[in-house]
Recover the amino acids of this structure.
């Protein structure tokens, strides 16, 4: 099978470091280029920001390139650019013929851009054919959702399929790494909770309806679920916890909900994709789990499973706690898994 | 006016220290006795657990007494005993003629025991007459709610009065001081969220209906509001934050909700009681407030006001953040204010 | 007595907020002007960075002025500018006739600039006469030391006077507020210790010798004490702890050292200056004190006393823990007290 | 080669969990028994305290045995009992014929008990022959030092060998896991530094002299190095940082010190023992490393190398930062490596 060379756009940030860690020994994809901004021309190891462990030696020595399709040689690209940089650069790469798999927010809600959680809506990827035609691009843009959205929609999907979901009220407790580096000042968050993350609630509320919706007649039909989100920042490092309340169409009980979640598998598991965890949802039965620090790396592929616990059901009212790794399932890992599905669907060429 | 001598039962814990701080210069109440358990016979300053600032000199030198009505000389008592100790000791004190004002959980849900938030249901105090008769006690027991309940019901009350409240979904982010000392191990909570506090959710759900209910025909008629709570522990020191979603009977808008909350005053304010804050609810208009560490001491009587912010309204769906000081409004301060109302109602004698 | 109008240069940062808090009700000094940089022209309340409590109303409404002597009308100025801004602005203010009391690092080690800890070397203030003549300034610059230096030299001074001090080895554990706002990223410091603060160790080592030295013949004669410092950052909010080991010329015992420290008073105490704490050093006898969070506000003027504990003496080897408030005694408070001494010495005019 | 069956005494605590993790796939040693106290008779997975990841399945199912030599079947035992329990149990096991490798404090300073850091003083193990004869035991007790001692003496040893070391002043910043579970209350340490750990300083000061000393004529001759320690607790999870100042006999420079540390290897490396890291000391050249959270797992065997950085040398005055994993190199790992050396020396039988 072909090995694909990939470029990582915006590789020097927190998420970029996780792309490198997950792609370094990837069986299909090979890191061919890293791009940055202020650090162009420097070695990657000198450009990297934040507190990550040292990159592997050959990656450390790579030169940081400008985020310019003319300077990048790769079969396709991953983008973890900041929103504004993504808005400018991603169409240029798509126009220049690159498939772009992006966890940036810039194009998620565009009518012709797939927003993918590989277990939930892989068929949305077919939109790229329409996108290419409409935009006259040789390449295309595929996006993955906000880190907080993933921890919500993954457990929602099996419940929606079996019980129907009408309304969701979610409060998040998000880790500081979600804000990147330097991100949240220590003076702001030590011993504190900040009940506000700019733009986050709207993202969760709108993205969920798109991901859970259908793809038909060349367009996305949004799901009718109502989502009311409140997003807070807490002094944890990695891992977004979500306290989820939802109202279902059919009544259930705790055991049913637990089984629906624990047994949920989908296309990435059926295809046994390299970055697919054996179980996208790990159900915890202990009274006090999942916990952010302890369970953030859950899954056979660490950080790729969402942990769910504290399932409580009163008829149509279902409550549980969800925990997902914001930089892995919520960013680098989710996007890599999306590219793996795309390869399976023939969207990366042979 | 008479000065009342008071005893504090269980005075050596975290809440006991706050009672002392708030009673030390109280215009009506004078600390006459402190009780403990392991520390009986020692000086208070040597018995006190935890990390509080030093008590005033004359309090520091007081001898810790056993929690025994025969050993205590006072006009009435405050109890911040642990639940099991309260279950045993409080009836003995009531039988021995002491009015007992307790923030312990033991008797809160008894059919003849008032559960008081002074701004909301002071008229429930009249139940003590029935309680005394029924139990054959010369004294009585009055309780105040769980620290988490207070931060919920205080903002609920004005909304209920004007808009009607049908259903409440609340997720809490509670400080470690709520678990007392030593309480939560540092290994358990540093950089972590624990989405479980034993028994807490049931307390919030049942206590709210009692407090918001009516007192009539010699019994408590519970409010019909449905409450669904999820309680978590976060690495903050003092102050319980609550993310509250509620559905009202009448639609509203953000300005209306903000005004209802900001302008809410009740009996303690009208009587200008010593421990009553000028405003029981402080409304924050900034996008990112209240924050736990910064706003926990809000109010003209520090820690006695609940801070509310991030008000978002969609028709009948109302969301906001509430923050209250778990040791002050949620324990010592709320109970002292209850005793002040009781004095006004003549329940402490002349 | 005259009331002096003062300007605060760089008033919008963390230290500036402490100047305002301490000057707001000051009996001699009245806040007349606040300067800033990006925020020039805005109201102070909108310009202020960081997490401080709200400023008093009339301060909140003041317009932020540019840091330009022509735009500032005041009897003298306090400067808490960043080093580079201080290097540029402070001489302009001195030239324009303003006495400048600065906690910035820019001119601390200049040969004609006093570096003052009011209890230790107030007589160094006389250097301003030489400074004015030499530089042809109508005003002058007086500096106060790095926040870490203060917590070292204050307890050193009484020991030096009575026992002689030859060598000091100090390891600091410094709070994040010492880095200003936004300062240290939460990702960098949560659950971590960073054993490095750029430039800090050299400051402590050189400033101590100047402060503890003599002023004679129109010049500063440095003290011969050797100081070896290691400075670390820990996840605390306010308060720099220092683990100090020193070798004295004469042997001592623990009680002697404790008494020398506890009984130490100096000119600010003798003059009963408004910002002088009754005791510059508070000695703690408990085995586990001082602690950063608990003892940071020690003193009759909160934050103006250095707490010392864990005194251990083996002949000429003396060990103890020192804790000082980096924003108060180590910045705003120490500089205000210096200005109070200067007024007493007639250096502010009548 | 023989596989040895081992028992872990006190297996349910924090250190016990690390023994299990490190022994589970050990090439020479096989976990045969786990002992506890309150949890005797329960499955290990139900008995384990604290916050560790789940043990492997066959360990999880093992029954917790009483700490009684009659109930334990093993070739030798590891002990991570609390001090008082160790004082009672370890001699019983030694008397019953078990070699006991203990990280408990009870017998470290006994005249006939080896206190081993495998790289530094493996020859001290020969004392067990005298110990057995003197005490009439078939087995014996070998101890390993306090977790804080290890991070000091490992870098001291190569400097002592080449430069001579006369005096050491050390300030530690120790993680909460060093106090076990539940250990330090979160209320005590959140946003705080506690400059005191009961008994710790004396341990560091006395153990260092024994470990760095010689074994000759059947007795331990203590090294003459003077150690002055100050031990503090900081809000980190794992990893004890130490700020070390020492005075050498010969002057040096930074490069020499860095090389002496970086190139230091000893018997465990020469024997290529299973738990020996390639380098016992990892030297960091960055200005701000090692950092507790980032570097705690340094080494080819994670947690078995001490990280050293910030080397500063002024003639005979040498300063540096040391960081070691208190539960691995400072407890379980160091003791396992000691047993590996003992096996090499024939002390475990064939």
């Amino acid at each position: 099978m072909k090995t694909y060379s990939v470029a990582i756009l915006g590789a020097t940030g927190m998420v970029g470091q996780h792309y490198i860690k997950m792609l370094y020994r990837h069986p299909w994809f090979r890191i061919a280029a890293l791009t940055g901004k202020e650090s162009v021309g420097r070695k990657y190891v000198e450009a990297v920001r934040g507190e990550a462990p040292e990159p592997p030696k050959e990656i450390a020595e790579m030169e940081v390139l400008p985020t310019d399709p003319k300077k990048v040689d790769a079969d396709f690209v991953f983008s973890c650019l900041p929103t504004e940089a993504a808005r400018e650069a991603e169409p240029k790469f798509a126009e220049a013929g690159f498939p772009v798999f992006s966890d940036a927010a810039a194009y998620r809600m565009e009518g012709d851009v797939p927003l993918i959680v590989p277990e939930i809506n892989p068929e949305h990827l077919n939109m790229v054919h329409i996108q290419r035609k409409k935009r006259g691009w040789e390449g295309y843009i595929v996006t993955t959702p906000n880190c907080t959205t993933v921890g919500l929609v993954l457990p929602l999907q099996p419940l929606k399929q079996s019980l129907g979901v009408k309304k969701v009220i979610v409060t998040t407790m998000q880790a500081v790494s979600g804000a990147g580096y330097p991100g949240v000042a220590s003076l702001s968050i030590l011993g504190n909770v900040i009940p506000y993350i700019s733009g986050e609630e709207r993202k969760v509320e709108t993205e969920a309806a798109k991901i859970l919706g259908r793809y038909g007649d060349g367009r996305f039909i949004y799901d009718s679920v109502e989502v009311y989100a409140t997003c807070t920042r807490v002094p944890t490092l990695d891992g977004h916890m979500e306290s989820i309340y939802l109202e279902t169409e059919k009544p259930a009980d705790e055991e049913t909900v637990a089984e629906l979640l624990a047994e949920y598998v989908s296309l990435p598991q059926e295809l046994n994709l390299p970055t697919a965890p054996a179980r996208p949802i790990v159900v915890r039965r202990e009274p006090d789990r999942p916990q952010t620090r302890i369970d953030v790396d859950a899954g056979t592929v660490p950080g790729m499973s969402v942990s769910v616990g504290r399932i409580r059901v009163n008829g149509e009212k279902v409550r549980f706690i969800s925990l997902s790794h914001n930089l892995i399932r919520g960013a680098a890992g989710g996007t890599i898994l999306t590219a793996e599905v795309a390869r399976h669907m023939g969207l990366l060429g042979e």
